[in-house]
Amino acid sequence: MGDKVKITIDGKEIAAVPGEKILWAALDNGIYIPHLCAGRDDHSPLASCRLCFVEIEGYAHPVPSCTQEVSGGMVITTRSERVDRIIGTGFELIMSNHRTDCRACPRNHSCELQKIARERKLKLKPARLPRLDRDLPVDGSAAKIKYDPNKCVLCGHCIRACREKGAGVLGFARRGFERAVTTFNGSPLGESGCNNCTACALACPVGALALKE
Amino acid sequence: MSERKMAAAALEKLKEQAGINRASLRGKTLILLGAATCGRAVGALEVAKTFRDEIERLQLDAAVVEVGCMGHCYAEPMAIIYKPGFSGICYGYLNEGVASRLVQDFLVEGDPCVEFALAATGINDFIPTFQDFPRGIVEQKTVMEHCGFIDPENIEDYLAVGGYGSLAAALDREPSGVIKEIKASGLRGRGGAGFPTGLKWEMCSSSPESTRYVICNADEGDPGAFMDRTILESNPHLVIEGLAIAAYSAGAGKAYFYVRAEYPLAVERIKKALQQAAGLGIIGKAMLGAEYSLDIEVFQGSGAFVCGEETALIASMEGEPGLPRHRPPYPAVAGLFGKPTVIDNVKTLSYVPLIIKNGADWFKATGTEKSPGTAIFALAGKLVSTGLTEVPMGTTLSQIIYDVGSGIAGNKKFKAVQIGGPSGGCLPEETLETPVDYESLSKAGAMMGSGGMVVLDENDCMVEIARFFLDFTQKESCGKCTFCRLGTKHMLDILERITKGKGQPEDIDLLLELAEDVRAGSLCNLGKTAPNPVLSTLRYFRREYDAHINEKRCPSLMCKDLIAYYILPDKCERSCDACVGSCPVEAIFSNEDRIKVVNQEKCVKCDSCMVACPPQYRAVIKVSPPEEVLRREREKGVK
Ligand SMILES: Cc1cc2nc3c(=O)[nH]c(=O)nc-3n(C[C@H](O)[C@H](O)[C@H](O)COP(=O)(O)O)c2cc1C
Fold first, then answer.
1. 0.90 exceeded by the pTM?
2. Owning domain of residue A147
3. Residues from chain B contacting residue A128 (CB–CB below 8 Å)
C-alpha cells in the first residue's frame, strides 16, 4: 500500500489511501455523506443516486464523492448551500418514488433513507412533489424473499449481492421512469432460478427486497 | 520532417489513374441528381429513372449520376445539369414530367428551361447564380463544398477534387505535427460540447496505452436533425479521410463509424466508400506506402438518443446497455474497452482534411475568435426554405432565418427559434441579432448542440413546445440517475398540468427549482441540458405560462384543453354545409337561422371544420379560454 495522502474534510485532517474515493475516506473517518448506490469494491462507480455531492476547494461545482479520488492537500466540505440543495432535491425526488410505509416495513429503524433524513434533517414525505407511485405488483413468489418494486430506489446493491453470493438472477431492466430491478427475463423471483440465499434482502437498504416473516 | 513525400507520391499516382478514367466523361452531358434521403423522400429515384429512360430512348450522350444533397432540401428533387456550352444549371421541384421536358427541351433542343431553374453554378448571361441570392451571400461552403456535386459512390470523384491529399500529407508528417496544426486551428467539436478537437487528440496520443481507438460519432439522434446524415450520404470519403487523419494523429490502429441503424443509405455509402479506399490502398495495411496501418469498421447503433452520448456510445459498443457512465475518466483517457479513445462528430472530422490542406490560419480566418470556422445547421420548422446550410460562425440568427431560410412561411409572425436539439433553448425575436457561436448561444439560453434549428411562429405555444421537448428527453432518459429519471418526470407532469389548464401559480417556482437542480445533479449531459427548453421559455415567454395558469388561456390557441372552436355567426354562409360534413363526431348543427353552431360537449377539437370552412368565409375560429364561446354567444344573444 502506497503512502497515505493528507486531505481535509470539514476541517478535519484525514490520511487517505491514494486512489481512494472521497466518500469512503469520509465514512471511514466518521464523516457521514448521504449515499445509496455506492459500492466499496466497484470498479467503476454507478454514480446514479446523486446524493453524495461534496464541495472541493478549487472546483467550480459540487461533485459526487463516490467518483472523485482523493489527492494530497484536497480540501473538502460536505455541506454548503449548493450541496444541500442538490441533495435535498435528490432526496425528495427519490422519496416521491418510494412507497413509504415505514411502520409496516422490515427496514424501519435500519433504513438508509431514514438515516439520510435524520442526518440531513430532511423530510421523508416530499414537501413540494406529488407521489409518483408506479403501482407495481409485489412479488412474493420466492420462498424466503419478498420484493416490493414500489419501494426500490435502484441502488443496485441487491444485484451485486445476487451476483456475488446468489444465483445471479437480478439485473436492471427497462429505461427511463420504467427502469427497475427485475429478474433476468422478468419472471417472478420464485421461477427465476433464485436460490433463496437472501443476500439481496440483507443488502437492500430500503426494504424493497426483504425477508419474509 | 516534411521531407517525406512518400504518401503524397503514392496518392499522385492514384490520382493520375483516376484522371484517365474520368476522361470518358468529358464532352458528355452530366445530370447530377440529388439522391440523398431528403431527395429520395420526395421521389428523386423516380425522377432519375425518367431521366435515364428518356436519355436511353433518345440515344443521347448523357449520364445521370446520383449525388448527395447540396442543402436546398426544400426544393428536392433537384438536379444540376452540365451540358457542354452551358454553365451548370440547378433545377428544383422536379417530377417525372419536368424531367422528360428537360431532356427534350434542354438536352435535345438546347433550351435551358429557365422557368424550372433555381440558379446556375457559374456566371452566365441569363440565369443568376446561387451567389446572387441573399442565401448565397451568407453561406460559406467548406465542408459542404462538394456535397451534391460529386458522386458519393465513386472514389474517383473525390480524388479528382483533391480528396485524400490531406491524408497523404498527414502521413508524411509526424502525428504530433498534425495535432499541432489542428490545435492551432482552434477547431472545436461540432457534436455538442465544443471541446477543442486537437486537445482531445493530444490527450489520447500521449497515453501510455498503445491500444487506442478513434470513433466517428454518427448517431445523430436529435429529432429533425440531418446534418451528419447528409454529409455522410453526400461525401463519405471526406469523413473517412478526417477519421483516418484523426486515427493517425492519435496513434490508433482501429477506427469505427458509429452510425445509427436508421441511416441505411449512409451506412451503405460509408461501406462502399471504405471498400473503395481499401481497394486503392488508401486505407488499410501500410496505407499509401506509409508505415501506418488502419482498420476502419462500421458499427450500427440501434436507437436510443442517449447512445449518442460518448460514454453511452462506448458502453453500447462494448455490448453493454447504452447507459452513460460517470466522467472522468474521459474517453480520451479510458474509453472503449478501457483504452484511450477519441470520439469526434461527423462534422468535426469533416473539417480536418480542409484544415490540413489549407492550414490553421485559413480555418481561423472564418468565424469568431473563440469559435473559428463555419457552422452547419439543419433548418426546419416554419421557414420558407428549409434545408441544410453552412455559414461562418458569428453569422446572426436573423441572417440565417431571413436570408438563408427566406423568412417565415405563410406570412406568419416569427415567434422563436429553437436551437441545439431537444435540449437546446428557445430564443425570441429580441435575440435575433445574436451571433451563432458556442458562447453567445449559451449566454442567450440556447446552445450550439449539433446544429438543429427549428423556427416557430405565432401559432406555436411556447409552453407546449417546452412540454414537447421535455417529453422527448424524458422518454429518452435512460433512467440511471435520480435527477434525470425522476426530475424530468416531475417537470413534465407540471408542464402537462399547465397545458391542460390545471397549473397553479406556485408551479412556476417549482419548475425553476427543479430545472436548476436537474441541471446541477444529473449524471450526463442529457439530464444536465434537459431543462433548457423549460428555462429558456420561462425566461423569454413567461407571459404565456402566466396566461395558461392564471387565465386558463393559451395565447397561441394551440393547447387543446384551453381552446374551443367557434363559428362566427356573421361570417357563416348559411347555405354552406362544409363544416357539418367535415365533423367526424357530428358536433356541428344548424340553428333556426341556418347558422352553424358547434356543440361544445361533443366537439373533439380535431380542426376539421376550420380546414373545411372555405377561405372566402373563414367563419370558424379558435378561442381561448373555452368560456369565450359562452361570452360571445351571450353577446350575440344566441338562443
Ligand atoms: C444525450 C446526448 C446525445 C448526444 N448525441 C450525439 C450525437 O448524436 N452525435 C454526436 O456527434 N455527439 C453527440 N453527443 C455528444 C457526444 O457526447 C460527444 O461530446 C461528441 O461526440 C464529441 O465529438 P465532438 O468533439 O466532435 O463534438 C451527445 C451528447 C449527449 C449528452
1. yes
2. 135-213
3. 510, 513
